[in-house]
Amino acid sequence: MNKVIYVDNNASTQTDPEVFEAIKPFFCEMYGNPSSIHTFGGQVASHIKKGRESLASLLGCEPTEIIYTSCGTESDNSAIMSALFLNPERRKIVISKVEHPAVKNLGSELVRRGYRVEEIPVDAKGRIDMDKLKQEVDAETAVVSVMWANNETGNIYPVHEIAEIAHLHGALFHTDAVQAVGKIPINLSRDNIDMLSLSGHKLHAPKGVGALYVKRGVRFRPYIIGGHQERSRRGGTENVTGIVALGKAAELAQKNMKIENTKVKELRDRLEKELTSRIPKTRVNGDIQNRLPNTANISFEFIEGEAILLLANQLGICASSGSACTTGSLEPSHVLRAMGVPYTAAHGSIRFSLSRFNTDGEIDYIIEKFPPIIERLRQISPYWKE
Ligand SMILES: Cc1ncc(COP(=O)(O)O)c(C=O)c1O
Q1: Given 205, 228, 255, which residue is the final one in a domain?
Q2: Cα of 102 to ligand 1 centre, how many Å?
Q3: Nearest CA to ligand 1 atom 7
Q4: Measured in angstroms, how far is the CA atom of residue 178 from the centroid of ligand 1?
Q5: According to the model, what pLDDT value does residue 383 have?
């Protein structure tokens, strides 16, 4: 394969080679069903137990508070649907305008099913309007769901404060922490969060495994009904390789947390500073003081993000415009629109999302290659005036 500079880690991450090593025995050697009575299956069950303990350690929770799922989307759906099912007299949910489609589009579906869904607006930096949130959460609200960190801007949301507001009105609080887990420290043992979603492929485990944390004492109704797996909270034979992988990834995330917040952050800051100083008419989208250490969302005004991505792709640079889920649509991202980013800037926005596998040399390469790409596209843009 040609040179690849991968700065699209909020879309998906490289499986850590140590994670890959850890799961290999579970394909052709230890392939028993963890629910089987025989020792062969029991062996597998013991590895699931170990994986659960590692994930619990990363989250600062009890292993019994974790339910494995197939992805972040399933975790989000399970949490919200459980809250609605268990509180049938409450017909309202409160979310933010910048949620991932896993929550936002579920919200639209719930409206079609007769629920009220209130989307709380954000300001120009993408910060949630807390006054509006306080007004909207009421005795009708079954659940408030606000993401811990945004996938497009990296913005971090005041989840503990929001949980407190939800609880004041007897509502549950769920957070989509798919982008936060592994990048910033989380300690659920001292938190007031009722439910939290995460996804393996965002923290160097493979795709196809996620988890939902449900705080002890919080009632939960399964979304996928079947066998007794996950203490009867999620039916279906366990995704053993996924669970073992997520355990190992959690262990490595804990070990590398400092690197995420020092080395990765330094690389991101340098990339952002150099691109915005070398290229005129750029702007950084998001709350610069309060965001994930790996994410930079930069608008290159008066050109199309898709065109930038195509030219960058020819040089092996893999980035993203908006979230991966909206690629293919030429509509500016709902997150940037909610922030009121002007049309000409929203269209030319690129998300760079780094990981601990990025190097100084790769950042140098992007810094060298990007200015001519932008220059070339602006020369042919009908909107660009020097
Ligand atoms: C914030 C957020 N929530 C949920 C998801 C969905 O996760 P999954 O791809 O595991 O379903 C993503 C994936 O991009 C995400 O970024």
Answers
A1: 255
A2: 7
A3: 72
A4: 6
A5: 84
DSSP 107-172: HHHHHHTT-EEEEEPB-TT--B-HHHHHHH--TTEEEEE--SB-TTT-BBP-HHHHHHHHHHTT-E
325 is catalytic: yes
Structure confidence by residue, pLDDT tens digits, 327-355: 455 678 999 999 999 988 999 999 999 99
Global pTM exceeds 0.90: yes
Q: Identify the active-site residue in 28, 61, 318, 325.
A: 325
What letter represents residue 109's amino acid? E
Domain boundary among 255, 276, 294: 255
Encoded tokens for 376: 């070339």
Of all atoms in ligand 1, which is nearest to the CA of residue 75?
11
Evaluate whether residue 144 is within a structural domain: yes
Which CATH number characterizes residue 293's domain?
3.90.1150.10
Whether residues 156 and 41 share a domain: the answer is: yes
**Predicted pLDDT of residue 323:** 40
pLDDT digits (tens, 9 = 90+) for 196-218: 999 999 999 999 999 999 999 99
Instruction: List 119's β-bridge partners, or say none.
Output: 95
**Domain containing residue 144:** 19-255
CATH code: domain of residue 87: 3.40.640.10
> Does residue 281 share a domain with residue 182?
no
**Distance (Å, whole) CA 151 – CA 143:** 21
Residues with Cβ within 6 A of ligand 1?
71-73, 100, 102, 147, 151, 176, 178-179, 199, 210, 324
* Same domain assignment for residues 23 and 9: no
